[in-house]
Design goal:
The protein is of the alpha/beta class and 456 residues long. It has helices at 16-31, 49-62, 68-77, 88-98, 115-124, 143-154, 172-183, 213-216, 220-238, 247-260, 389-398, 408-418, 439-445; strands at 7-11, 38-43, 78-82, 104-108, 132-136, 162-165, 196-204, 269-274, 292-297, 309-314, 321-328, 346-352, 355-364, 372-382, 428-431. The strands form 2 sheets. Strands 14-13-12-11-7-10-9-8-15 form a 9-stranded mixed β-sheet, with helices on both faces. Helix 1 (16-31) links the parallel strand 1 and strand 2 (38-43). Helix 1 (16-31) crosses helix 2 and helix 1 (16-31) crosses helix 11. It starts with 6 loop residues before the first strand and ends in an 11-residue tail after the last helix.
């Protein structure tokens, strides 16, 4: 059993991620009794611990509310180290603040270009021994930079101590997807190319870049959500059953699924940009960064050979929702003389904003004729999740549970899939806000009946 971290150090303590996610997660963990170690914020912003405590309170007031008892404990244990991440003196002060802690967890809530700087600073300052490190996506910008980042991290920490956080994997609906797949014996016999006609994954956002134009213009939809969130979902859908319930078994199964994904080529990809994007603050004039991407993925295994897996993601679409639909091949139409029902049988997973697992089926319509109608059998409809992804993942990292974190080989294998289509390899097509993206994305799936547009 992994040893529990006895201190949490989060770099970027005065930043946006700490304000939106880390302080609320820490209060929740303290309220549940899930962490009782030191809490040290590190930032380049000049200030002191009282100012950090006030920022923590403001964070909680804006995100879920202040629990008086839990916040009092959080405030009492909160320390602050101010300093330049490039200066050795910063890490000397951090070492002093850690006191007798021997298993710290370092959370790098900072821009990715600072990951190497802080990792090397921790190593040079002697702070890394017996420690763990959590880093946020993106894990590189392409395959080459991902490999370089992993090499840098490994100079300071062993792979077993590196926790690459993709908050999407900490969501209850995503975990339920894995559970539903492997806990139900009726699904396994039909979960293959013999019975599955196609798979569609849609991640739609009604919002635009919302004041984050400069950041988004350096990333785009493929880097932002396709390479990580959506390929992770595709891996969970297509992987074989893990050998056991231990963390590395799941990650081994996902890595094999990634390895089986064929690298994308230009005919597999349609990129779009919503009209008005280049007028957003921080976006470069004439930018060709995509705010929408549709890709056709192929998984070269006996189970999935020949089954198209179509993924689309975009901003300024008609609604906000993430949904998976697995269409099954139609039953023999000759039995009842019916035709045109090829997508009547399906499995649908809605991951957000509500949680739904449902099955599409045909039943006999009322009347004398042996004619049918399509219905949806609801297996689950729930919005309950009393633990946020960041609380769950931060708690897991503190306890050394790597199940929901991304391993080095997964990261590199996922980049291998998208690497050939990054940048301007394909043209960017304009689309109107409030639509389902450029018309060219419809052509990508036209031969299979088009997209299933997500309903409210």
């Amino acid at each position: 059993m992994a040893l529990v971290s006895d201190a949490l150090v989060f770099f970027g303590a005065t930043g946006d991620l700490a304000f939106r996610q880390i302080f609320p997660a820490l209060q929740a963990m303290i309220r549940r009794g899930r962490f009782d170690g030191r809490i040290i914020g590190v930032s380049r912003s000049a200030g002191h611990v009282d100012a950090l405590r006030q920022r923590a309170r403001e964070s909680l007031e804006a995100h879920g509310g202040v629990d008086a008892a839990a916040f009092a404990k959080l405030s009492a244990r909160l320390q602050y180290v101010n300093g330049d991440y490039r200066e050795p003196s910063t890490y000397a002060r951090l070492r002093e603040a850690l006191g007798d802690s021997i298993r710290p967890l370092y959370y790098l809530a900072i821009p990715p270009d600072l990951f190497p700087t802080v990792s090397e600073g921790l190593r040079a300052g002697g702070c890394h021994e017996s420690g763990r490190v959590v880093i946020e996506k993106p894990f590189g910008r392409d395959l080459a930079s991902a490999k370089a980042l992993n090499a840098t991290l490994h100079r300071c920490f062993p792979e077993s101590a590196i926790f690459r956080i993709d908050h999407y994997l900490g969501k209850e609906p995503v975990q339920n997807l894995v559970y539903f797949r492997f806990a139900n014996s009726f699904l396994e016999p039909i979960w293959n190319a013999q019975h599955v006609r196609r798979v569609q994954i849609t991640m739609a956002e009604a919002i635009g870049v919302e004041g984050r134009g400069q950041f988004y213009d350096e990333v785009g939809a493929i880097r932002d959500v396709v390479q990580n969130h959506l390929l992770e979902i595709a891996a969970l859908l297509t992987m074989e059953a893990p050998a056991d319930h231990l963390p590395d078994a799941l990650r081994d199964a996902k890595r094999r699924a990634f390895d089986a994904m064929r690298p994308l080529s230009p005919p597999d990809v349609v990129r779009g940009q919503f009209r008005g994007y280049t007028q957003e603050k921080g976006v470069a004039p004439g930018s060709t960064v995509e705010t929408f991407a549709a890709v056709r993925l192929h998984v070269d295994t006996p189970r999935w050979s020949g089954v198209p897996i179509d993924i689309r993601a975009g901003k300024r679409l008609p609604l906000t929702s993430t949904e998976i639909r697995v269409d099954l091949k139609p039953a023999d139409p000759a039995v009842f003389g019916e035709s045109g029902q090829r997508d009547a049988n399906y499995v649908r997973f809605r991951l957000s904003p509500d949680v739904v697992i449902s099955l599409g089926a045909r039943i006999k319509a009322p009347g004398e004729a042996m004619a049918g109608e399509s219905v949806e059998l609801l297996a689950r409809d729930s919005t309950a999740d009393d633990m946020t992804p960041y609380e769950r993942l931060l708690g897991d990292a503190i306890h050394g549970d790597a199940m929901l974190f991304v391993r080095e080989d997964e990261v590199e294998s996922a980049w291998r899939v998208v690497d050939p289509v990054l940048g301007d390899v394909t043209p960017v097509r304009e689309y109107d806000p409030g639509t389902w993206g450029p018309a060219e994305s419809d052509a990508l799936v036209a031969g299979d009946g088009g997209w299933h547009d997500v309903q409210k």
